[in-house]
Amino acid sequence: MLVLEDQFRAAGSSFVVISGRRRSGKTTVLMQFMRRHPNSLYFLARKESSSRNLVYFRRAAADFLGRDLGPASDGDWNRTFREIVSRTGGQKMVIMMDEFQNIGQKDPTFPAVIQYIWDTVLKGAHVMLVISGSSIPQMSAQVLEYGSPLYGRRTAQIMLGQLSFSKCSELYGAKSAWDQVMFYSVTGGVPKYVKTFGGYRDVYSAVEGTVLNPDSYLYDEVMASLQSEVTDIGSYASILGSIASGHRKLQDMADDLGLKQTGLTNYLKVLMDTGLVERDVPVTDDDPFRSKKGLYRIADRMTAFWFRYVYPHSDLLGRGEKEKIMNIVRSDLPFDTMRSAYVEICTEKAWDMASEGSWDLIPDRIGGYWGKDVSADIVGIDYGAEAILVGTCVCSESPAGPEVLEDLRDVGGRLMSVTGAGRVEYVVFSISGFEGEWPDDVDLVEGV
To answer: Which ranges carry the ATPase domain (predicted)?
Structure first.
């Protein structure tokens, strides 16, 4: 919101691009901004032709101006914008075009139309143009990339990502640390999902009341979102299902799907471009793109949950036997999905602690490590101090005891050899606290 306010107060015209996946809060941000600045025209682009969208845009403009602009046949996009600008009365106005990419998908020349309008009409007219969209690849191609006619025109760019766990925990309400991590393991940081789940007493009732409830928007949310991003939805669903079931290496995925690795790479690139999938590498790898230890991961937690627990059991859901699915969720969620979420939360916490000076090192990198004989949840590397931080994340309903240190120190010694570090510091995160006597050279972090 601060970026939008700065752009509104800037002298002259401004051109802001907002992008982010579905449910990331783009439209909410625009509506809040409109309430602050009533001299704003909002338009939601449809998945129709440019000419049909012009009809809708002129209607929205007529409502905004308080007078009829006549049928679309009486004007084109250029003339319509000129008519809107001519009635600003010297006061800065805001024109918002939400889901902009919908028009460009139907008419590839549309970004060039808007480029011409910006250069000849809006740039010198004391106007703030805001373009937003939820398809990240399309927004990049149509607005942000070098080959786009609109490249270089924007005065500000906002990428709306997911909320951090600390922000989500405020929305979950008065719940225990255990329950908060359980909720986050399903919702991730998508604001809409977090708010929806926050109204339930526990994660199981939330899943049953939303994801498995035909009357809830979350019932078909994942597939609808996927369908808005890709065309061959069956192939992409198969790949996401394979990753969700634990096949994170490219070769394992190919074997699971009965395909060659080369047949998967293009699909995976598209999924990574949309932000649905990420490729993790050990924190020690200096060249992530060439790393042979890459593991693919579904970055959106709701999508990961759905493809792990719902997609493989669609037949049960179709027969109305959702209790069988719930039994699978109850037996698996706390031991796999929840733990990966807790490691993510602890990594976020480790960065915060590092910035607060909690250790005698300042990590250049923090991430996970895995190799043939050793793995670690959290490794921080300070190249300047030739030191490393090694941590483990205990996700259990029981307090962690000092017995975990034997393995942790062994991992630390091995990683000193891997990294060439001269010393190591240790940290243990435990969602349920600690018991027993612990040495002073280990930092203990309880809860979340």
So the answer is: 11-196
